[in-house]
Amino acid sequence: RLFRLVRIVRMVRVMRMIGELRALVMSIAGSMKSLCWAVFMLCIVIYIFAVYLTQLVSDYRAANLDTGLEVSEELTYYYGDLSRSMLSLYQAVTGGVDWDVAIVPLMQEVSVWLGAIFVLYIAFVMLAMMNVVT
């Protein structure tokens, strides 16, 4: 009988928590539409900057191929193709790669002005885009 009483008390406590859990799940489900649109907008911004940086790096690589100069491995690794550029930009925003690691190959090899563009990208995404999500 004592074990039945303990089980009943447990069930009552669990039932109270289920109500709170249901409220939490409903809140998350209600915000999914806004979250999906914010993620979509973030992907668009990352795509635009990735296309720009990939095109600049590709032009730089093509120009150096004609002159015989080698391009650094870091530049090719982070910005060699569109998908890798998008990943590098996403990692720079979310902390997967340090900003300095991602920006140095651009500034040292292609142009110092790409540092300003990269900083503007980080500032826009962190201050504008991420504040929309939170």
Task: Give a short synopsis of this structure.
89% of the residues lie in helices and 0% in strands.
What does this protein look like?
The chain is 89% helix and 0% strand. It contains five helices and no strands. The longest helix has 66 residues, at 2-67. The protein is elongated, with a radius of gyration of 24 Å. The N and C termini lie far apart (50 Å). The mean pLDDT is 86.
Content-based structural category: mainly alpha
Main sheet properties: none
The end-to-end distance, rounded to whole angstroms, is 50 Å
Net shape? elongated
Query: Care to count the β-strands?
Result: 0
Mean pLDDT: 86
**Residues in helix, %:** over 70%
Strand content: under 5%
Which key features would you list for this structure?
134 residues, mainly alpha
Helix/strand layout:
Layout: H1 2-67, H2 73-79, H3 82-94, H4 99-110, H5 113-133
Helix pairs in contact: 1-3, 1-5, 4-5
